[in-house]
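During the no-cost extension, the postdoctoral fellow (Dr. R.K.) reprocessed legacy sequence entries with the updated structure-token encoder. One reprocessed record is reproduced below for audit purposes.
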Amino acid sequence: MRAVHDLEGKIVATELVGATRRYLQERGVKAKVEFSWGATEAKLPQLADAIVEVTETGASLRANNLRVVETVLESTTQLIANRAAWADKAKRRKIEDLRMLLDGAINALDMVGLMLNVHGDNLAQVLATLPALHNPTVSSLSDQGWHAVNTILKESTVREIIPRLKEAGAEGIVEYPLNKIVL
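Re-encoded structure tokens follow.
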């Protein structure tokens, strides 16, 4: 299939039945649109001729040797409050708390935490190697002269930074995923 018009008379599996029907109708394509209960990409080619799938990265599509023919719609996430709820002080606080936590999850998407130990003789060199959200946290360890360093950085930089940290004298380097970064 090369274009949406190639779906004429075909079966399309999707969780987005209404949006898919409207999209096809607007383009004058008559196809049978069927609701799909999960794993829609696995329905091809035995149960459907094409799929309409919600995807963020397209990794699942590529893993199943599928390709995007057309984009049906693009969406953004929005937090919407009812006016009456927003006017209620207790409900407004809950809404604002939820917004802050959602923002924190979004802020953490491409970030990781990094912690390591370093002897005081090498601390300046290690700190010079580290980009950070602000400044790394440095704490003294119970072993005299040693420090723990904790920071947050872009996940895409870790592959290059960890070897440089090791060269600068860092030990016990741990990378960990983040769920939220509340700024």
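The mean pLDDT is 92. The helical segments are 17-26, 59-63, 83-87, 89-107, 123-129, 158-167. The remaining legacy entries will be reprocessed before the final report is submitted.
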